[in-house]
Amino acid sequence: MFSSSNRTRYQEGSFSKHRASKSKSSKKNPSFKDSPRRVEKLAQQAQASSAQPSPTSPSLGSAIVTISVGREQRLFAAHEDVLSHSPWFQSLCSGQFFQTTNKRIDLPDEEPEVFSSILEYLYKGDYYPRVEYDKKRNSWNLEDAGAGANNPHEAVIQSSVGPILKDTIIYCQADKYGLQELKKLALKKQGLQSGIQCSTILTSARYAYANTPDNDSKLRAHYLALIIRARHTFKRSGTMQNEMESGGKLFFDLFVAMVNHMDDLSAKPAY
Q: Where is the composition biased (Basic residues) (predicted)?
């Protein structure tokens, strides 16, 4: 159902380190020593939970829609009622275009790897790498991030303007498709990334500015804060110098954010 492709990973010095550990389930199956009443209660609970359908589970009568993605026309197949969780796809599926037996959507300008993750989210409520909670460190991490600092989770899409973080593209596409929870998830995953090259951050920030409305400032603010936190690294970056010379709204916002940051520091009492 899903089409997968290789992810690009960089082994550079990271701005932050994140490790994850998988917790093992501590639940035990009821033994024969349990009272009959307890066993019956557990069976009833299991039956009740299994009877509740997943919000993304397709119905038996749902039609199959073929989606052609990208210039290479990579084909995906999905249930119509699963796609309809997106207002954008719901509107498309209910239009006159779909009054035929051959249901097909063409998305020539989308990235197949990005759409694969969006489709995975529609079915499972998350996409790889999934977000995991580390009880020992009381923090959120990305799945498989415990392999060490030399294995950073940086999945990028190679575009005509340079590498762009896949989560950034997913955020922008989720806005287009009306998937607000996916936007939150993609933004959260970007905050857990580490070992990202300066050039990738700057290219992704420009993409975010070009593909989000002015009233949606969360993704833009994420990149401004990231650049400010790593300002000593960016100060030595030749890519940063070239980007600033090119200009754009990104760098005016960065200037304002940097001034506000300096004002906040100067307002703190000296000890």
A: 16-27
Please tell me whether the peptide bond between 129 and the residue prior to it is cis, using omega within 30 degrees of 0.
yes
Q: Is residue 16 domain-resident?
A: no
Summarize pLDDT for 193-247 with one digit per residue, the tens: 878 888 899 999 999 999 999 988 899 999 988 888 888 788 777 777 777 777 7
19: its two tokens: 């490790």
d(C-alpha 175, C-alpha 88), whole Å: 10
The Cα 175–Cα 212 span in angstroms is 8
Q: 211: burial class by Cβ within 10 Å (0-12, 13-18, 19+)?
A: middle
Distance CA 212, CA 91 (A): 21
Q: What is the pTM for the complete model shown?
A: 0.69
Distance CA 170, CA 175 (A): 9
DSSP code string of 204-225: HHHHHHHSS-TT--HHHHHHHH
The answer to whether residue 180 is domain-embedded is yes
For residue 94, tell me if it sits in a domain.
no
Nearest to 143 by CA among 32, 269, 35, 20: 20
Q: Is residue 189 part of a domain?
A: yes
* Full residue range of the structural domain in which residue 253 is found: 112-267
- Type of residue at 65: V
Q: Which residues pair with 105 in a beta bridge?
A: 67
Rg (CA), the chain: 23
133 strand-pairing partners: 140
Q: Name all contacts of 82-90 with Cβ < 8 Å and 24+ positions apart.
A: 82/56, 82/58, 82/122, 82/123, 83/122, 85/55, 85/56, 85/122, 85/179, 86/122, 86/177, 86/178, 86/179, 87/177, 87/178, 88/176, 88/177, 88/178, 89/177
